[in-house]
Design a protein that fits this description.
eight-stranded antiparallel β-sheet; four-stranded antiparallel β-sheet
Length: about 450
Amino acid sequence: MEQFQIHELEYFDDDFSDFGEDDISLGNGNGFIDDESMDSDFEDEFENRKSKNDTSASQARKGKDIQGIPWERLSFTREKYRESRLKQYKNYENLSRSREDRDKNCKEVEKGHNFYDFQFNTRLVKSTIVHFQLRNLVWSTSKHDVYLMQNYSVMHWSSLQKKSTEVINVAKSISPSLRYPGCLAQPLSRVQISTMTVKDNLLVAGGFQGEFICKYINQPGVTFCAKLSNDENAITNAVDIFYDASGAMRVMSANNDAQVRVMDAANFACLSRFTFPWSVNNTSVSPNGKMLAVLGDSRDCLIADMQSGKILSTLSGHLDYSFASAWHPDGHILATGNQDKTCRLWDIRNLSESLVVLKGRMGAIRTIRFTSDGQFLAMAEPADFVHVFDTRSGYVKAQEIDLFGEIAGISFSPDTEALFIGVSDRKYGSLMEFKRSRYNHYMDCLF
């Protein structure tokens, strides 16, 4: 993975001559940490902000833009701006290839379906991004609870109370509470969080300099934190919380030093360390805890044995580096997202070629999620588009969520009722909430 941060890149030219009065920023690679605001008092800030910038489903039905963008005050329409974005957006590529190669075998889908309805958009919390290739910075633990990165803080947003709370501030020094002989925990400070996950009351975050932070969200303080590597190229690209084949909870990190580390979630002792031929950008464990998907700076993706790290299969078909993966809950299908603008679906029972190839609209596939019931697959591009597919239709029926801004992450709630999207933008950064539509289910029951 490239060793630079998002604010060192510009994906597209937003210097339109007809922009007016700084009404819009949107999409100049701006998911960066603002050092001047890192020590701000979040509670006071949120109390003082006005909710008039938020948008409800009722307001959207009456014509208000879901992100609160005042198109009527601008000298161009939403449609015109979308047209310009599609023409000017530059997808980041590590490996060059022809468009014909990229589009070959991509599935034709039926867009226009509506599986998740817009529910609410709040600008009281604003997603931020440290590295332009890493977009796992939004996690939902219920349909009312979401965790996201905002500058140097992990924030909790309650969609029920419309209230935010700071969970961790890593601009300041943090000290681990876990202490025992041989424990590798150490104090950290000024961590730039590059990736995170939350599951079963445990929050795990990785840092730009190889940091690893674990906190139980129902307990004060940080339980464990340390630098996993002193390698100057050791950015933590991905973290995961999973249960192994015996049912024990484990935590995992994937780093740019080409290593995957597995730790016990009870004492955070390192249980396994696997080394691969290239920087590891993403990992995901199969539902039965026996297989590990490994993606990185290679066209190929790997399936490894979770116990030994031995490579079991090589998945060939992508044309660039991969940064996202997810397993269907039944354990038979693995989805992989790549900078070639595609998501490939692999049947674990026959890995000779991908089962389905799904194409993005504008950029790389940076994030992939399945709902817990396996009915829907969501994939997010770096900016502007989130695609939701009905798996029961063979991934033919699709919903395209069209927005403006860098996408920091997406997350379904565990009960599948909500879909959250973090939008990173200087002015219109927000957290978007969509609610599962039950109309289609009702209609399915009639026929």
